């Protein structure tokens, strides 16, 4: 069965510092991986997906199949990045998302 | 205003009672999902439906039931068999290509 692991419940950094939110997965097939974000009092929303290989709000994530990882990175954190971040995997079978437990990012001024 | 709407936002029920949570979308999405969110556990899949009149159990379906009679609607019933029903419930929808899941605002259910 697929599994997504986010080892950090809370990550606290200062504004301007680099950020790396870790995500590891286990899946026997070829995974589709996503990062979702939930800002305070807002809905859970898609941040980025590995297929697109895009940068959103300065965040990037690279799929490393050898390490089965999909870490989220940003070189310079901003206070508005403070939110709950979820890594998610979609399997080709049931097409539903499996989420990690989430990491709360706090960016301090 | 397109989107996915969950109602009510807060729901209180007595132990032993069944309760139904509403989820409606006007995005013309074929697929709909129900997740349960508990602190420290992320989102766990309860049920999902890829098409009208069809649905499948997710990872924690015991004590829950759903129906999908209309494309726009995917109500979730929390039955008295659910041992720990107090939680935050999120509904989502996506296209059949499943490119992005859109989430509702959630319903917080408290059973007393």
Describe the structure.
The complex is a heterodimer of chains A (109) and B (112). Chain A is mainly beta and 109 residues long. Chain A is 0% helix and 44% strand. Chain A contains no helices and eleven strands. Chain A has strands at 3-5, 10-14, 19-21, 24-26, 32-38, 45-49, 60-61, 72-74, 83-90, 97-99, 103-108. In chain A, the strands form three sheets. In chain A, strands 2, 5, 6, 9, 10 and 11 form a six-stranded mixed β-sheet that branches. In chain A, strand 5 (32-38) and strand 6 (45-49) form a beta hairpin. The radius of gyration of chain A is 13 Å and the shape is globular. The relative contact order of chain A is 0.35. The mean pLDDT of chain A is 93. Chain B is mainly beta. Chain B has strands at 4-7, 10-13, 19-25, 31-38, 42-51, 54-57, 64-66, 76-78, 87-94, 102-103, 107-111. In chain B, strands 2, 4, 5, 6, 9, 10 and 11 form a seven-stranded mixed β-sheet that branches. A four-stranded antiparallel β-sheet of chain B has the order 1-3-8-7, with no helix packed on it. In chain B, strand 5 and strand 6 (54-57) form a beta hairpin. Chain B is globular and about 40 Å long. The chains are: A mainly beta (109), B mainly beta (112). Chain A binds chain B through residues 4, 6, 9, 36, 43-46, 49, 86, 90, 94-102, and chain B through 31, 33, 35, 40-45, 48, 50, 56, 58-59, 90, 92, 98-106.
The class by helix and strand makeup of chain B works out as mainly beta
Number of E-type strands of chain A: 11
Rg over C-alpha atoms of chain B, rounded to the nearest angstrom? 13 Å
What value does the Rg of chain A take, in angstroms?
Answer: 13 Å
Strand content of chain B: over 45%
SSE sequence of chain B, one letter per element: EEEEEEEEEEE
The shape of chain A is: globular
Mean pLDDT of chain B: 92
For the biggest sheet of chain A, the summary is: 6 strands, mixed
Average pLDDT rating of chain A: 93
Number of discrete helical segments of chain A: 0
Largest sheet of chain B: 7 strands, mixed
Determine the oligomeric state from the structure.
Answer: heterodimer
Distance between the termini of chain A: 41 Å
| Regions with little confidence, pLDDT below 50 for 5+ residues of chain B | none
| SSE order of chain A, one letter for each helix or strand | EEEEEEEEEEE
């Amino acid at each position: 069965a697929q599994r997504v692991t986010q080892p950090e419940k809370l990550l606290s950094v200062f504004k301007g510092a680099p950020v790396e939110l870790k995500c590891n997965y286990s899946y026997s097939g070829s995974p589709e991986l996503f990062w979702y974000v939930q800002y305070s009092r807002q809905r859970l929303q898609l941040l980025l997906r590995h297929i697109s290989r895009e940068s959103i709000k300065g965040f990037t994530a690279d799929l490393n199949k050898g390490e089965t990882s999909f870490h989220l990175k940003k070189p310079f954190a901003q206070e508005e990045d403070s939110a709950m971040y979820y890594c998610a995997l979609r399997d080709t079978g049931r097409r539903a998302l499996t989420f990690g437990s989430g990491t709360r990012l706090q960016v301090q001024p | 205003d397109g989107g996915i709407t969950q109602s009510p936002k807060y729901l209180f029920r007595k132990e032993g009672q069944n309760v139904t949570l509403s989820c409606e979308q006007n995005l013309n999405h074929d697929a709909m999902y129900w997740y349960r969110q508990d602190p420290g556990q992320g989102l766990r899949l309860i049920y999902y439906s890829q098409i009208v009149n069809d649905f499948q159990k997710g990872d924690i379906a015991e004590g829950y039931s759903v129906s999908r009679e209309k494309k726009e609607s995917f109500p979730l019933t929390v039955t008295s068999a659910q041992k720990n029903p107090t939680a935050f419930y999120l509904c989502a929808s996506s296209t059949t290509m499943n490119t992005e899941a859109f989430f509702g605002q959630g319903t917080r259910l408290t059973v007393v």
